[in-house]
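I am writing to request your help with a piece of structural work I have in hand. I am sending you one protein, given as its amino acid sequence and as whole-number tokens for its backbone shapes. Kindly check, if you would, that the fold set down in the tokens agrees with what the sequence suggests. You will find the record immediately after this paragraph:
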Amino acid sequence: MTPDHFIPILGKKGDRNYIPVRTLTTDDYVFVAKLNESYQLVPSKVISISIEVKLGYYSPLTTTGTLIVDNIAVSCYSNVISHEIAHIGMAPIRWIHSLARYLIRDMDTPFKDNENHNGIHWIPGTMQMIAQTFTPQILST
């Protein structure tokens, strides 16, 4: 997760709001995966915030637009102005991926790319380039 990724927090009305990680404070409540009979996301107050540098995936795309990192729910998206806009923008990729997996059942990774550029898969990289050209206002600075 980077400072530009989004994280869902508990909103004042009990709803889920996505904020950039860099704006997270110890006054916020994040959603933590707890195992009871099944996994459930429960709000938990942020006690401390620390920075760690690790090697790994930058923004893996999931069908839900979220994933669990160290038992904390986080967004897959970064470098845009909202989680919701990014999720809508990536919908065609999720649909094509689902269709490809349905049509070609033995295909594990229809979008496998051995040529990532700076850790960014060519599809979101292309989408980012298009957004920078035509709608730069949806990208964060």
Observations:
- The beta strands are 6-10, 16-20, 29-35, 39-45, 66-69, 72-75.
